[in-house]
């Protein structure tokens, strides 16, 4: 065989080998199976009663005199104000780093930390170099342990949090002190911080990202108020003006609780039967779904069911103090994207829409409501800061894995 014939034969063999490699590579790609692809989920817990419960409104982020930068805001003043505007529950969340984690012998040990009418949750603002979070608990817990692991890895923090049996919430996730820990160890996220609604746009975006990726996180509000009205003019500080613009209830977080107890409040917050309104007098946003379209609502915001592949009728209604002869704009978000916009009018404004959740994979729906501002005479400056934002709901879920 000549050299020319040998080279020709060699090239032919090489082409066959290369073709085989390419074919095998292509074959390998086509046979890939994604172990995390959507699959049908198992049996989900039954939906709780839609009638066996009560709506309670509260404040989940407020600072007393035990936060060093606070002014004119003793616990007694917070509680008295809350009672006067009809607030049902409050969690006073003082900065734990101001007392080196010893919340139990500061905020909770304050003689003013008691009330016969307003439910008081135990909590604090977990203030760390990686951001801030609020703790909510129906009973005292060892907050010092959580404070001590604030700079440890998330797996360590998560283990301590689980042992304490507390509800941990991410505070102002897109703000200066954004939450820099894993969202896998929180039950809720502060999507509406303070009366200044426009600054929360990025928090809403983060919430939608978490929801779209399968994390069932409750959206809640909190005024983050630090300053009260001074008792006398000489007690005024440079921040005293804030008390008339952002104070208890701006915004207000509503929970559908099974009882008027601190534990029922925390449970509802964890379960997501929650909505947020601009202030204690603004209408409450209620969001329901009729799964079989028989005219009877079967689930509400926070609930999670398996999709049947059939159309579902949804209902949004505003309950409480609506502005007479006004129109409210209801915007529906589906899986993080705009779904539809509807107008609601009347004494009890209500809109309905129909859609079919996917039978395989996750789907969620949530709503925001805009319209005329509801007067809040005790905090008159808050209306301008909230603008047209009236309230928002938590999602209704389909095919969300409870073991995610």
Layout: helices, strands, pairs:
Elements lengths: L2 H28 L23 E9 L12 H10 L4 E4 L26 E10 L2 E7 L5 H6 L5 H11 L2 E4 L17 E6 L7 H12 L5 E5 L29 E6 L4 H10 L2 E4 L6 E7 L8 E2 L3 E2 L6 E8 L8 E7 L2 E8 L5 E6 L7 E8 L11 H5 L2 E5 L2 E3 L6
Parallel strand pairs: 1-2, 2-3, 5-6, 6-7, 12-19
Antiparallel strand pairs: 1-8, 3-4, 4-5, 8-9, 9-18, 10-11, 10-13, 13-16, 14-15, 14-17, 17-18, 17-19
Order of helices and strands: HEHEEEHHEEHEEHEEEEEEEEEHEE
Query: CATH topology, anyone?
Result: TIM Barrel
Intertermini distance? 67 Å
Please tell me what the overall shape is: globular
Number of strands: 19
Low-confidence stretches: 22-27
Number of helices: 7
Proportion in β-strands: 25-35%
Question: What is the typical, i.e. mean, pLDDT?
Answer: 94
Main sheet overview: 15 strands, mixed
The rounded Rg comes to 26 Å
CATH class: Alpha Beta
- Count of the domains: 1
Residue share in helix:
10-25%
CATH superfamily: Metal-dependent hydrolases
CATH A-level architecture? Alpha-Beta Barrel
> From the helix content, strand content and strand pairing, which structural class follows?
alpha+beta
């Amino acid at each position: 065989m000549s050299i020319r014939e040998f080279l020709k034969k060699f090239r032919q063999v090489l082409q066959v080998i290369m073709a085989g490699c390419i074919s095998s590579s292509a074959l390998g790609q086509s046979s890939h199976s994604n172990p995390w692809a959507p699959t049908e989920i198992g049996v989900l817990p039954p939906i709780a009663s839609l009638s066996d419960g009560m709506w309670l409104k509260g404040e989940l982020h407020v600072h007393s005199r035990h936060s060093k930068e606070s002014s004119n805001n003793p616990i007694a003043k917070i509680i008295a104000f809350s009672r006067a505007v009809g607030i049902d529950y409050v969690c006073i969340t003082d900065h734990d780093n101001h007392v080196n984690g010893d919340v139990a012998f500061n905020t909770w040990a304050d003689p003013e930390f008691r009330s016969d009418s307003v439910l008081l949750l135990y909590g604090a603002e977990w203030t760390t170099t990686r951001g801030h979070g609020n703790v909510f608990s129906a009973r005292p817990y060892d907050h010092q342990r959580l404070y001590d692991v604030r700079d440890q890895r998330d797996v360590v923090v998560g283990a301590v949090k689980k042992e304490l049996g507390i509800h941990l919430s991410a505070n102002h996730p897109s703000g200066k002190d954004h939450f820099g820990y894993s969202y896998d160890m929180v039950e809720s996220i502060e999507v509406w911080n303070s009366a200044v609604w426009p600054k929360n746009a990025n928090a809403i975006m983060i919430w939608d990202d978490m929801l779209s990726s399968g994390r069932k996180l409750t959206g809640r509000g909190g005024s983050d108020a630090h300053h009260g009205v001074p008792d006398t003019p000489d007690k005024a500080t440079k921040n005293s003006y804030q008390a008339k613009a952002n104070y208890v209830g701006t915004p207000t977080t509503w929970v559908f609780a099974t009882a008027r107890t601190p534990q029922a409040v925390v449970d509802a917050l964890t379960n997501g039967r929650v909505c947020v309104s601009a202030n204690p007098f603004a209408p409450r946003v209620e969001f329901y779904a009729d799964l079989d379209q028989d005219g009877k609502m079967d689930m509400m915001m926070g609930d999670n069911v398996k999709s049947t592949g059939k159309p579902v009728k949804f209902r949004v209604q505003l309950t409480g103090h609506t502005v007479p002869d006004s129109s409210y704009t209801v915007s529906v978000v589906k899986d993080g994207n705009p779904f539809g916009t509807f107008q609601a009018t009347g004494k009890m404004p209500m809109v309905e829409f129909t859609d079919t959740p996917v039978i395989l994979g996750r789907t969620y729906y949530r709503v925001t409501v805009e319209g005329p501002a509801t007067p809040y005479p005790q905090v008159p400056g808050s209306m301008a800061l909230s603008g047209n934002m009236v309230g928002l709901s938590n999602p209704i879920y389909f095919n969300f894995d409870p073991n995610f």
